[in-house]
Design goal:
single chain, 187 residues, alpha+beta, Alpha-Beta Plaits, 2 domains, four-stranded antiparallel β-sheet, 25% strand, rod-shaped
Length: 187
């Protein structure tokens, strides 16, 4: 074998060096760069997922606070407003109320409808009654109604009944608005 010249040695060394650089880039640097890009993409995706999880956790606390406030509000409302009852029970309740005040009911009509402002929360019963009795008893009834949260007087119309033996005796046509709390939707 013949000895290589200096020029051949430089060319062989350069070709070997180029082969090492080529194979290093092809099999080491490019796969590492690809993995680095994938890792960066994974990092971005995981950071977005982390933000979503943190957002969900923050919202869960808000939702739990809202639910707590809603349950507290419902408990508060249950203290002041009775649950929905039948029209027969309303009839008995109003008749008992008027008789306790010494008034004589002569007519009663009722209309049941959802509350126009909070239809999911309240039911309204409009009960129109015609009552006879002494004005003091009528005003006693109206005062008792004024002290009640769930019942109010929507309208009144007084007439005096003329009787020789009775002064201060009259007739009232009044409409009571009774507000009842609807049962919760999930019960």
């Amino acid at each position: 074998m013949k000895a290589l010249t200096k020029r051949e040695k430089i060319l062989t060394f350069s070709a070997g060096l180029l082969a090492i650089v080529y194979f290093s880039v092809q099999f080491a640097i490019l796969p590492l760069a690809s993995r680095l890009n994938e890792a960066r993409a994974d990092l971005d995706r995981l950071q977005v997922e982390q933000l979503q999880v943190e957002f969900d956790i923050a919202n869960r606390a808000d939702i739990e606070r809202i639910n707590t406030i809603a349950h507290e509000t419902l408990s508060y409302l249950k203290e002041y407003y009775p649950s929905v009852i039948s029209t027969d029970e309303v009839h008995l309740k109003l008749t008992d109320l008027t008789l306790r005040h010494g008034l004589v009911p002569s007519s009663l009509t009722m209309t049941v409808a959802p509350d126009p402002t909070y239809p999911d929360l309240f039911t309204i019963v409009l009960a129109t009654m015609t009552l006879e009795g002494y004005f003091d008893s009528i005003f006693g009834l109206l005062d008792e109604v004024d002290e009640n949260v769930y019942i109010r007087v929507a309208s009144n119309f007084f007439t005096q009944v003329r009787r020789a033996e009775t002064e201060g005796y009259g007739r009232i046509s009044t409409t009571f608005e009774l507000t009842y709390l609807n049962p919760p939707a999930n019960s």
